[in-house]
Here is the input.
Amino acid sequence: MPVNPDLAGRTFPPTAPYLVGREKVREFARAVFSESPLSLDVAAARAAGYPDLVAPPTFAVVIQQASLDGLLADPDAGFAIEQVVHGEQRFAYTRPIVAGDELRGTLSVTSLRSAGGHSMLTADTVITDADGETVVVATSTLVVRGEE
Amino acid sequence: MSAALPAVGDVVAEREFRITRDALVRYAGASGDFNAIHYRDDVAAAVGLPGVLAHGMLTMGAAVQPVVDWVERMPGAKIVEYGVRFVRPVLVHPTDGALVTVRATVGAVDESLGIVRVDLAVTAAGATVLGKAQVRVSLGS
Here is the structure.
């Protein structure tokens, strides 16, 4: 199944609001071997000037994943998750994600090209808070393997 | 803080992680990535992989933690960008897991912007697993 070339330049609807839970931040922090008191101890986070626990830098992937699910579920996308290999990942931060944030991700396909039977798809997910301010932009490059 | 700027070549952090099968299950639950190639040998084999692989995002997430610790020791400093290329998968042995080593070195310093680029050398089984792994840190005012 080839990737639909019309995906290039397309922007998908925002994901449903995701409320960042304090225990989810702790769970994610432990899973990525964090030893940061700012991700584990509310008093330490507040002493450092944050309203609540600070999520590890790659926590934004949780919201990005929801936005990618929207892309993959689109009947026009033309490819399936089994064909996808994660090639590159980047995050550009305006501020860290903190517990209590209500976040939405809006995905745009910024580039789509073919290379040796595969397709390389790059997508930006702009992650915004309840005030509509950008918190982080997550950029993924996916290698979509051809059928043969 | 008016501490001296880091210099290119400074090693700011080094750390090792033992990624076990348990760690993969923990990360799957925490992240919501339940792709079975990260915990089932039969599924990994069926798609032609040599075995169960760590989530690339787990390796990426763990590799930046020593830099997070370094940044948090500098008041006002924060991470403004972090990017990697996934160049080689991390194969996770059923009992021994995989030992991942991280060495974080200052790669560039922009004094006018107060931005330091930290380059991560991330290896498992003697081979580089993350390419062009770079963290941009703003030192704050």
The mean pLDDT of chain A is 93.
